[in-house]
Amino acid sequence: MSKVTTAEFLERWLDTSVTTVRSRMRRRYAEYARLYAIPAIGKVPIALLRPEHLQKLYADELARGRVPSSGGRP
User: Fold this and answer.
1) pTM of the prediction?
2) Where are the domains of the chain?
3) Which residues are registered as beta bridge partners of 67?
4) Structural element, H or E, at residue 57
5) Alpha carbon distance 23, 25 (integer Å)
6) How far apart are CA 7 and CA 66, in angstroms?
7) Which residue, among 11, 2, 3, 19, has the nearest Cα to 37 in the 3D structure?
8) Which residues have a Cβ under 8 Å from the Cβ of 69 and sit 6 or more positions away?
9) CA atoms within 13 A on the CB side of 34
10) Rounded CA gap, 1 and 44, in Å?
């Protein structure tokens, strides 16, 4: 089983895979990863990441008022 964490995966993804989007969008992805995803689920090994982790992340951010309920910017 891979010991790569979700944080490591996201950093690698941002560096290698998010190359076809505009730089502004790439910065937005990186910002969201740093501010929301990595603090909440970054330590979870990517092989063990489950939908429940993402559902909790989204629910927690929504409760904090950081996620728009009907689209738009947080």
Assistant:
1) 0.77
2) 6-63
3) none
4) helix 51-63
5) 5
6) 20
7) 11
8) 62
9) 7
10) 13
Candidates 11, 1, 6; CA nearest to 49 is: 6
pLDDT digit string (tens) for 17-53? 877 778 888 888 889 999 999 999 999 999 999 999 9
Q: Which of 6-10, 45-49, 54-58, 64-68 has the lowest mean pLDDT?
A: 64-68
What does the DSSP 8-state code read for residue 1?
A: -
The answer to whether 74 and 66 have CB atoms below 8 angstroms apart is yes
Two structure tokens written together for 11:
């950093």
Q: In terms of residues, how long is the chain?
A: 74
* Structure tokens given for 66: 């950081």
